[in-house]
UniProtKB/TrEMBL annotation:
Residues 9-63 form the HTH cro/C1-type domain. This is Transcriptional regulator. It comes from the Bacteria. GO terms for molecular function: DNA binding.
Amino acid sequence: MLTNFGKELRKLRIDHDELLKDMASNLGVTVAYLSAVENGKREVPDTWIDVLGEKYQLSSDELAILQSLAYEGKSSLKIDLSKIESEERELALAFARSFKSLSDEEMKEIRKILGR
């Protein structure tokens, strides 16, 4: 089944008059792999958002939409903590440990703080 990210990717491809093989080449993957990502059989590689932005001259809003759609299908998320300060690291880890127990009101407040 085509994912929301897959739909957006397909739209991007069509808007640029490209075939599946053209976009696969731009992303450095096989047609089969690109098709599997579009159809939700594989997760969206983290590097694709930047590559798509560069290859297709996407705006920051378009990139944000793609990133959000890419995260929809992820079963896990990897965050690189190596280049952040210890206080920021502690906050990220505290959130990771407790986000499942947040109330709806607490989640709304966090979204508000983060500007969503």
